[in-house]
Design goal:
Number of helices: 12
Helix content: 40-55%
Low-confidence stretches: none
Strand order of the largest sheet: 1-2-3-4-6-9
Distance between the termini: 15 Å
Mean pLDDT: 93
Radius of gyration: 20 Å
Length: about 290
């Protein structure tokens, strides 16, 4: 998490981005939207995008007004994958020494991986809203999100195998935990395109909307998250992620320790009081 306070984060967000558009669509809701915004390139992920995604996530992590984040895209397609041919491409480096070339490329790949891991590390829930084509690194980006929705025109494909590349930005690590080993292997080894319906059937997305407009307008789900205790929502995300990578026994031990330190909160008292008084709770701002 980057240094500085919430006012610094808000000021930096207002300065804007080259490849993203970050906004709060509804001032009454604590939900921010991070939109891939390179229409002419079908939102292909450039070096600037890989630098700006973690920056945006870090800023929203620090911003109390942001309690949930929606990751979406401008134009007819969500993401055309990584931009390989432009300036700064990970394949553009030149080294005389093969060993130096290998180490240089390894460092580049680790940096690109860190950009997507920043989505997981953001303490606020990140919800992917996918429409149109979602290719290669775009699939790896949404796999790092906590929840995934799409419109019925959405398609997903891991094209790396067709480009003689082993997918290296998280698909082979995150997708088996989301859709199961067999489905992940099917997608990664065949490079076949799947529809929104098949993505829903295998668990890649939680819900399919009839259109992009409906996907964009159904903000009630995001608002529901943002209205809950921020402390509890962030704790739930942290425990879910930790439990994913350890045994059930270790996960139970972890959440017991977490709640031993966090359960006696003002938000819990407020939730109980609001329930008794039959009103909406007013939770603390972090």
């Amino acid at each position: 998490m980057a240094g500085g306070g919430s006012s610094d984060a808000e000021a930096e967000l207002l300065r804007g981005f080259k490849t993203l558009a970050v906004a709060r669509p509804d001032p009454a809701a604590a939900v921010y939207e991070v939109r891939l915004n390179r229409l002419a390139q079908r939102n292909a992920l450039s070096p600037d995008a890989f630098a700006e995604i973690p920056r945006a996530m870090s800023l929203l992590d620090r911003l109390p007004a942001a309690r949930a984040v929606v990751l979406s895209a401008s134009g007819p397609h969500f993401c055309a994958g990584i931009e390989l041919g432009g300036p700064g491409s990970p394949l553009a480096g030149r080294w005389a020494d093969p060993a130096a070339a290998a180490e240089g490329l390894r460092r580049v790949i680790l940096d690109l991986q860190a950009a997507f891991t920043a989505v997981e590390l953001c303490r606020k829930p990140v919800i992917a809203a996918v429409h149109g084509a979602c290719l290669g690194a775009g699939v790896e980006l949404v796999a790092a999100c906590d929840i995934r929705y799409c419109s019925k025109d959405a398609t997903f494909v891991l094209k790396e195998v067709d480009m003689a590349i082993v997918a290296d930005l998280g698909a082979l690590q995150r997708l088996p935990r989301i859709v199961g080993y067999g489905n992940a292997a099917d997608l990664a080894l065949t490079g076949r395109r799947i529809t929104a319906l098949e993505a829903k059937e295998m668990g890649l997305v939680s819900r399919v909307f009839d259109s992009k407009q409906e996907l964009d307008e159904d903000r009630q789900r995001y608002t529901k998250i943002s209205e809950k205790s921020a402390l509890t929502v962030m704790g739930t995300k942290a425990v879910l992620l930790r439990s994913r990578d350890i045994t059930v026994e270790q996960g139970l031990e972890h959440v017991a320790t977490w709640n031993a330190g966090m359960l006696k909160s003002n938000d819990l008292m407020e939730a109980i009081k609001a329930f008794v008084e039959k009103r909406k709770p007013v939770f603390s701002k972090l």
